[in-house]
Amino acid sequence: MKALLLQPNLVEQVRDAIVEEIASGQLSPGERIIQEQIAQELGVSRQPVQQALLLLRNQGILRDAPGRGLIVAPLDPEHVQHMYDIRAVLEGLACRQAAMAQSRQAAQQGAALLDEGRLAVASGSVARMIVADTRFHEFLYGLSGNPLIASALAAHLTYTQRLMGEVLMRDPTQTPLDLWDQHEAILDAICAGDPERAESLVRTHITRALDVIVARLKAAQPTSDEAPAVP
């Protein structure tokens, strides 16, 4: 982690820095969070770290550790499934409405976001890739003209960013550039004013990411036949 400058949104910066460490695999599920270490690495006092950790605990990114303190919460396949089911429906609606009413704006502004995403991939930075991915999807929400779509999905944004890291680092079937090829196809459908195709493509895009995450999480779970480890 790099030191942060003191700014009014310092708590948000600390939160984002911790999420970045989790999404990039630097902090693993079950790993204990050391408050003093985070404060030292980021060059901040303990107070913004405490507030950021509380936010992440409330968002389900962290959980109480046995005894005291916090650990990185394991990902729950069922929760991920429910969240992505909702996301597929809402993003499908966003793309449908965007194709019906905002194809010109999509054509004018969308290409720059695709370029940003591919530059992020070229940088090799998972953090940059997550930021670019988030901006693209938020652009789709804005094109819909329905502000409730963005506000409904914002409640799950931090958790979604964590899951993006899982897809970017652990999907053996595609590279991060493939994801941006999918984004380009979604944008092309919107620009062409094709609501059915735009909705179908974004649903497939989200469902594919869901399948990767859930399959990995289920594979990592111990089976009922496995005997507990002998101390």
TrEMBL record:
The lineage of its organism: Bacteria, Pseudomonadati, Pseudomonadota, Betaproteobacteria, Burkholderiales. InterPro entries: GntR_C, TF_FadR/GntR_C, Tscrpt_reg_HTH_GntR, WH-like_DNA-bd_sf, WH_DNA-bd_sf. Keywords: DNA-binding, Transcription, Transcription regulation. PANTHER family: GNTR FAMILY REGULATORY PROTEIN, TRANSCRIPTIONAL REGULATOR, GNTR FAMILY. Gene3D superfamilies: GntR ligand-binding domain-like, Winged helix-like DNA-binding domain superfamily/Winged helix DNA-binding domain. It comes from the Bacteria. Residues 8-75 form the HTH gntR-type domain. CDD domains: WHTH_GntR. This is GntR family transcriptional regulator.
